[in-house]
Amino acid sequence: MLFMILPEAGELLAGVKAIEGFRLGCLIDASTGMVLASLPSMDAPAPPTAAAGATDLVHILTLLNGKLATGEILEDVMITFSDSFFMVRPVSQDTEPMILLLVVADRHRTNLAMAHRSIRDFCASLPA
Amino acid sequence: MNGYANLIAARLRKLADEESTGMLPVTGRGDGAIFFRDGQVVYAESSRTSRPGPRATGLDEHGLLPGEAPDSGGERYQDEAGVVAVRPASGLAGVLELTELIIDALTELLSSESRYARFRPADVLPVGEGRPVAVKTLLAEVQRRHEILRQLAPTVSPDTAVACESSLSLPSAQVSPGQWTLLGRVGNNTTPRTLAMQLGRSVFGTTLEVYRLVELGLLAVQGRPPAPADGQAVTVSFIRAVTGGKGNDD
């Protein structure tokens, strides 16, 4: 199912499809958990569930950060499953509401360091 | 969704199937309207949620917002070509801000206490282009939000009065600029809805932020003891909202 609340966001997502082993890309409003746009490949996990999980993770980590109060900011989250990588990154650190990029990639086809770099560059290139 | 909300959802699906253009007035706890163009929702507004801009759509012109003076015609944003825009939005966050307020209004309008009136094909969105979104996508999002609000209900609702937690020796805590703004506005009988309306923000989003501030121990629900620190408090789960919801819009 293709979620497209913001067509503009869908166009932007095309940039992460070049990641080797790409399975799913989502842009998510972290404050409400709303999926703004998703770009699934043929073997993608369900976008609403994957996006909801990413938002739950960020919510918990933000709560942890809030309680620790060290002045740090969340840069990204990298999760390794047996067959896939889940990578979550706020597209901008100084924009509210925080918009998250979720990329799911095939672990057996993806170079994690390269994917990490691509995601970082992609977020830096997005208009604020 | 249940009861009358299901009837409204069914009406919206029918308007989408018929590729309708016009306005569906909705009444209930608050008044509002949903605007369609070619079967897609382009705008929605409720008297119980923040409006995207001053006299953004002209609901006042349609007599749907009680207590508002007739349009004086002087508060809209108008470009050189005479096209009136709802609110200048820049970047993804700006576009999201406007869309969020539309979905926030829909979430309110599709409550179980709402009823729709006769569809008005002649009444089109009088200003701007709106934000066309498919009805199916919107209904899925509204259902998800209702499920999250159900999860939040034991702790906080949009109409729950909250106050700054002053009885505790507060630990240091780190908050976002948006949360800081909310903390600065909390006074007597402040609710997430009043905060959202003051700041022109989403009621749903503000309710979630207030819940997070309660979790951090910086806000407390009035008349209720602070949440226990042993993790017994209800935790909101976005996954549960999309996989374990009771309603079904499909």
Strand order of the largest sheet of chain A: 2-1-5-4-3
Assembly status: heterodimer
> How widely separated are the two ends of chain B?
11 Å
Global mean pLDDT of chain B: 80
Biggest sheet strand order of chain B reads: 3-2-1-6
Helix content of chain B: 25-40%
Into which percent range does the helicity of residues of chain A fall? 25-40%
Major sheet summary line of chain A: 5 strands, antiparallel
Order of helices and strands of chain A: HEEHEEEH
Folded structure, characterized:
The complex is a heterodimer of chains A (128) and B (250). By secondary structure, chain A is α+β, with helices and mostly antiparallel strands. In chain A, 34% of the residues lie in helices and 27% in strands. Chain A has 3 helices and 5 strands, in the order H-E-E-H-E-E-E-H. In chain A, strands 2-1-5-4-3 form a 5-stranded antiparallel sheet, with helices on both faces. The longest helix of chain A has 22 residues. Chain A starts with 6 loop residues before the first helix and ends with a helix. The mean pLDDT of chain A is 90. Chain B has 7 helices and 8 strands, in the order H-E-E-E-E-E-H-E-H-E-H-H-H-E-H. In chain B, helix 2 crosses helix 3 and helix 5 packs across helix 6. Classes of the chains: A alpha+beta (128), B alpha+beta (250). Chains A and B meet through helix 1 and helix 2 of A and helix 2, helix 3, helix 6 and helix 7 of B.
Give a summary of the structure in a few sentences.
With about 130 residues, chain A is an alpha+beta fold.
What is this structure's SSE topology?
The complex is a heterodimer of chains A (128) and B (250).
Chain A: H1 7-13, E1 22-29, E2 34-40, H2 47-68, E3 77-80, E4 84-90, E5 99-106, H3 112-125
Antiparallel strand pairs in A: 1-2, 1-5, 3-4, 4-5
Chain B: H1 4-17, E1 22-27, E2 32-37, E3 40-46, E4 77-78, E5 84-85, H2 91-109, E6 115-116, H3 135-152, E7 162-164, H4 177-185, H5 192-199, H6 203-215, E8 219-221, H7 238-243
